[in-house]
């Protein structure tokens, strides 16, 4: 029972972190629009919000309903992946600075970001999202949520990356990664 409560608190902390991201995102989107930013892909955004919100709720519900016996090695190793994914996410946010937000907004005239994690990958934040999508529910063996989110998120990322790449081709001097 203690691990269920600890898991619930962990997911609650991640939810608070997401709210903080939304504050940063809104501030940065306002800045981007003031500097001529153009938004693309608005159609998939509501699905992304629903998927990510549902993800947080679903894993807690699954853990409380199924009440699995959690292997400590799995829980601790998945928690380490969650912490690493949060570190990567905030490295992306810090590297992109005012250009980071949860939408696809490209500001013309800005040079591509090639520092930080962008030295290694074109969309490192999505690596963090995928890793967390598997690891966070698996901290308490909520494998149904991990599997469902992974499949739905793969479909979403297929659309999202296509939209971002098209936006970047249209405005080649900018870079976005949400």
What's the topology here?
Blueprint: H1 2-34, E1 38-40, H2 45-66, H3 72-96, E2 104-106, H4 124-138, H5 143-170
Antiparallel strand pairs: 1-2
Helix pairs in contact: 1-2, 2-5, 3-4, 4-5
Features:
178 residues; mainly alpha; Four Helix Bundle (Hemerythrin (Met), subunit A); two-stranded antiparallel ribbon; disordered C terminus
Explained architecture:
By secondary structure, the chain is mainly alpha-helical. It has one domain (2-170): Four Helix Bundle (Hemerythrin (Met), subunit A). 69% of the residues lie in helices and 3% in strands. It has a two-stranded antiparallel sheet with strand order 1-2. The radius of gyration is 17 Å and the shape is elongated. The N and C termini lie far apart (36 Å).
How many β-strand runs? 2
CA distance, first residue to last residue: 36 Å
Share in β-strands:
under 5%
CATH topology: Four Helix Bundle (Hemerythrin (Met), subunit A)
Which word captures the global form?
elongated
Query: Can you summarize the main beta sheet?
Result: 2 strands, antiparallel
Radius of gyration: 17 Å
CATH top-level class: Mainly Alpha
- The SSE string, one letter per element, is HEHHEHH
Question: What multimeric state do the chains show?
Answer: single chain
Number of domains: 1
Helix- and strand-based class? Answer: mainly alpha
CATH structural architecture:
Up-down Bundle
Describe the strand arrangement of the main beta sheet, using strand numbers.
1-2
Average pLDDT level: 93
Helix proportion range: 55-70%
Low-confidence stretches: 172-178
How many DSSP H or I helices?
5
């Amino acid at each position: 029972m203690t691990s269920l409560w600890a898991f619930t608190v962990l997911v609650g902390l991640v939810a608070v972190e997401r709210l903080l991201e939304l504050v940063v995102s809104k501030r940065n989107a306002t800045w981007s629009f003031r500097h001529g930013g153009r938004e693309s892909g608005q159609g998939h955004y509501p699905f992304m919000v629903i998927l990510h919100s549902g993800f947080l709720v679903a894993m807690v519900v699954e853990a409380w309903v199924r009440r699995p016996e959690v292997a400590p090695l799995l829980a601790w190793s998945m928690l380490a992946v969650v912490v690493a994914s949060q570190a990567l996410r905030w490295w992306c946010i810090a590297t992109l600075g005012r250009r980071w937000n949860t939408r696809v907004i490209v500001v013309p005239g800005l040079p591509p970001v090639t520092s930080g994690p962008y030295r290694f990958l074109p969309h490192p934040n999505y690596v963090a999202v995928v890793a967390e999508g598997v690891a966070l529910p698996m901290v308490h063996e909520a494998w149904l949520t991990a599997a469902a989110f992974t499949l739905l998120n793969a479909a979403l990322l297929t659309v999202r990356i296509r939209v971002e790449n098209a936006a970047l081709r249209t405005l080649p001097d900018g870079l976005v990664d949400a």
